[in-house]
Amino acid sequence: MKLFAITATVALASIDCNDGNNGGCSHSCKSGVCECPSCWELTDDNLTCQPEAGMASISCNSAGMSISVAPCVVDPASSITLVDSSCAAVTGDDGNYELATALDECGTEYTVNADDDAIVFSNKLIAGAGLRDGIIVSRPLAMSFECEFSTYYDDVKLNYTADAGLVDVSFDFGDDQPDAAFFSYALEFYSDVSYTDLFDIENDVVVVGNTIYGAIENQVVVDGLVFTVESCTITDASIGEEFKLIESQCPNSIVSAQVDNFSDAEQVRFNFMSFLFPGSGEESILNFSCEVVVCDSAASDTVCSTDPGCTARKRRSADSESAYTFTASKKFTVRK
Question: Is the pTM of this model over 0.90?
Answer without folding.
Answer: no
